[in-house]
Amino acid sequence: MNMNPDIDVVKASIHLGESQSLRNSPLVSYALAGLQKCWLPEHGRWSHIYHLDGRDRPNESLPRSDVFYTLNVLLGMSRLNAIPVDINVSEIFERNASQLTRLPVSNYAFGMALWTAAELNLELPPDMLRHLNGLLAEKNWAGFRAQDLGMLLTGILAQIRAGRSEWLGPANSLFQFLNQRYHSQSGLFFDAPFGFRRRFASFATQTYLTIACYHYGELTGDPVAIEMANACARKLIALQGPCGEWPWFFDAEKGQVLDFYEVYSVHQYGMAPAFLECAERHGVLEARDALVRGFKWVLGNNQLARSMLIPTLQLSLRSQVRKNELQTKKWRMLRAVRNAYLQPAAGLIDPANVALRLECRSYELGWILWSFGQRSDLPQLTHHRNFSDALSK
User: What is the pTM of this model?
Assistant: First the structure.
């Protein structure tokens, strides 16, 4: 990577080996080593996909995705004990955040930029600020998917914590919109504010809105937000699979699983731990056990009885997926509609019909950094021999 330290936070200049107390855990170091494989030096960002099928050029670039994933990785780095000295955080952020208004990105990418900039104490590009101010002033949010709303609200809340108190009004308005249009009595969140598609919600839907509610409640002291987040966390834990799988698709209206597949590694080791850490803080006693069970799925406690890690590359396999859906998603929605109206909740299928998706995406490793960069209370995960052994080879 072509980078020199240039960031106004002290931790950015700390070398990994300078102090034992400030070293990253083997899990975090594993993710950092994997990210080196995903780096695109000619673009100054991390890649959309690193293919694990043996091709000569494993990195695939898709600019709008690269940029978003890169911001996600930088967010994770904000929680590290030690950012590697060859990573110029401010330069990478500026290069990529400045492209958001020039690429066909979703609204949630702007939320990620807000969140990342606040956590790393970095300035936002002026054109991006103008775009956001217009979006928030218009209050034209009917087209927001849950990820848009969740990330924008979380990013704005992070900016308020960092000193931009002028955004408290928009934060309150966004939360009220969330409460009125996305909150289901089942405990789960809807994926959209209106329409037929609304009730069909993914695990990502639940993750981003749960995190947003926790952060809003913590900043404003609003107990309603915390209770909404706790209710969703408890419902998801109740729906967790027998090996710790986090289901992918839900009927938010009924509060049931429509389809477990794909089961994504990032949900197991990154996104679920992100909101479960908050749930632990707010009295969800079962959150810690659910986090550990989910993580162990990646280590091999899963339907295929195999680790999802690629130790030689310090990467992970993206998911376990139905064999007939490796190349298409068209059957997934049809099955979800059928299950919502005609059948009880879905379960796991025969392992003989499950395959591996042979790729890794850089943002997945970024979520490891965020969820475990500051955790020292789970050594059975952060210091698991699979990570320390992979780094010693």
Answer: 0.93
